[in-house]
Amino acid sequence: MLTDIEIAQKNQMVPVKEIAAKVGMTEDDYDLYGKYKAKITMAELRKLQSKVLNEKKSGKLVLVTAITPTPAGEGKSTVSIGLADGMRKIGKNAVIALREPSLGPCFGVKGGACGGGYAQIVPMEDINLHFTGDIHAISIANNLIAALIDNHIQQGNELGIDPRTISWKRCVDLNDRALRNITIGLGTRLDGVPRQDHFCISVASEIMAIICLSKSITELKERISNITIGQNYKKETVKFGDLKCTGAVASLLKDAIRPNLVQTLEKTPAFVHGGPFANIAHGCNSINATLCALATGDYVITEAGFAADLGAEKFFDIKCRLNNLKPDACVIVATIRALKMHGGVAKTDLKAENLDALKKGFENLAVHIENIKKFGVEAVVAVNKFITDTDKEVKLLEDLCAQFGAKAVLTEGWEKGGEGAKELAKTVCEIADSGKSNFKPLYDINLPLTKKIETLAKEIYRADHVEFEATALKKLKNFEENGYGNLPVCMAKTQNSISHDKNTVGAPKGYVFPIRDVQLYSGAGFVVAFAGEIVPMPGLPKLPAALNIDVDDDGVISGLF
Predict the structure, then answer these.
(1) pTM flag (> 0.90)
(2) Which of 306, 315, 526, 530 does the annotation list as catalytic?
């Protein structure tokens, strides 16, 4: 059996100019990054934005989300890509909008984010590694801000910044737990002012969120200027714009703000841009990539990170709210294997038929179906088929989904590409075309920040009540006093459970949801709340994926997945 990377390498790509032609672009509308990757020009980006925002000519927007992830695998990106290919198989003009992969998971445990099997975006190696350099640009821009802050303090500290209050973190696009808490400025007086500092992974940085939520360089600069970096000794807020270096930071991002265009194995156009994680960031590809797709496709398939309690909620409550997007349908990806794990079956025993475990594990899927309905969007369940799934298990899952008002559709995109997703494509198109979507965000944006957090905890995570650390409450009060009370909330919590506890599988309810800290992302336009033990810098596992990755003398990479 071929590995994902072997399948991708055997595929014959077409020059990206042929992909661009499918979405109505000429060679003047993009810049080539080799033969198979392109960046949309600012002029073309503005034209496509206007088509959606001003002329109201827009495709149907379909979100792909999933059940709570397990080691058995769910395959959200694979289904997203297979669904778009399947739509093209049935004669629909489908376009994809996806996130860029982070190097952290590629060398860690999760792997890349290009799909799998015969439902992939390519060139797989390039997209999973450096791609067009967007995340590197974001990392450098982030760290330029950090360097400018510390230099300002070193050179006399005209703004009176209190080093103890600096909230801006440095970043690197790798899983490196040793950088979570560090001390900088050690040495002589010429080496800086000593203070405690921190690193986050690049995809959790506020600059990543800003790139993904900015439609123009003007908006980008406004958001960068509005970044809160700390307080002065009078306890007044200091913003990055006070350092008067916004233009320098934005100059590093002038290309990173432009969406990238690539292709699937079956030559479906794919806009791949932006890469915030959903467990510690807002989890959606850039608004610019989505607008490009909506302007050029009749159906747009996009995804949000991890399960519906994280990615889908943030897609709805942050991205859609801030950009007046209205999703037409939602796909929840599940596997019978994963549901049996949520029902208590060990990974080694998943091949055996177990209807009782499937029924118990379905409780996790049921929560996600109910949650999607709370946003007024109709959902279909895409059952990623495995050879070990029995007829009885499939029938039981179909019946259980029907009881909760969602159709379950078997999909075989991993094995058969678009051909294996045609039935799912037909079902999704029917829902999207029905006009029944009545999208609305979960909470009123004018609620107090504590009430927004409590709404998420009770309505989405099924907690009984929220327990705030005293420091978190004090910060939330301060945010509101400074005019930030009307921002949405971006919850940072484990992806491995609907709750804050990574060890609690299935459908937990009636528990205490702890908020240990909060952080203001005033540039991005939301408040991050940290629940449980989640941290913005992941660590590597004992046996990282890096052990399996290699490259030969011809530059051919192996071991990526």
Answers:
(1) yes
(2) 306
